[in-house]
From TrEMBL:
This is DUF4595 domain-containing protein. Keywords: Signal. It comes from Butyricicoccus porcorum. The keyword Signal applies. Residues 1-20 form the signal peptide.
Amino acid sequence: MNVKRIAALVFASCMTVLLAGCGAASNNDTGSAALPAGTPTLEEIYAANTLEVYHAANIQPSLSTCLREGPDNRETNALLTLYWEEDLGLVSRFRKTDMSFRYYFTRDDVNYSAAITEDEDTVLTILADDPEQRGEKEITYAEKLFHQYSFGDYSSKEKLVSCTDSGDTYHIITDISAMSFTDSTGRTYTYTTQEYDVEKETLRILDVFRTYRFTDTDGTVKECTRSRCMTYNKKIVSLPDFMREDIIEADWSRTFTLHYPDGSTDTVAVPDGISVLVQAPDGYEVYADSDCETVYEEDRTDEDGAFPNRTVYLAKK
């Protein structure tokens, strides 16, 4: 399985599962299949592919995830680039399927997203906390995207089956059957094997590929594939001009006050002169009045042409 590495955004490709040479080995036991000398453990590989490691190496990881599910071969693509910016910290640029790119960052413990609308106006979105998780220490939205669309975390349920020395890389096959599960709605995900291409020198993951069977609650069965690729570069993308000029250099003196269902409130700063939306968590709506009758939909200027301070209310739909 050859993966072409480019110093730009990588697009995922789905590859044929290679099962030749599979043994019956655990993660730290060669079993019946001899592993090349120096073969890394899965723990070592995952430890070399964390945000902290990328940050320390001054690397922007760019990930592409492709999911295909049959029999109609429906395809979903997600593209994520993470990088660090002095003023905003960890920033993620994210696009799913045909959506436009959005940029996610955290400032003063508040999660924001930024984008340019069709009429080229800058729009900032406050990602409101889930009221059911308030008070819990959570990772930032950018980190959540990384965990969701990258390679995840090491699981002891995954066992090393074989490793092929391919020169500068290892081609690794693992058994992930123990990770199969049935979710709360009765849908079943049946896994078998997963493949990796790993750079020898750094243990950076270049790509991961798996096939699995999805059985829906009505008995419908779909054979699915998921491919995740990554490229590494010192600088793949930069902050767009609209973020640098409108957001970083703006006067953050305007405020949004969010009222939560439990009676608590948060007052957060937003850039003055920029339209701001509030994205409610699943199951909730944002209202413009305390009676929760008028949905807050658009941030309008006042009679003087300025965006005023605002108060909004989160409530269950």
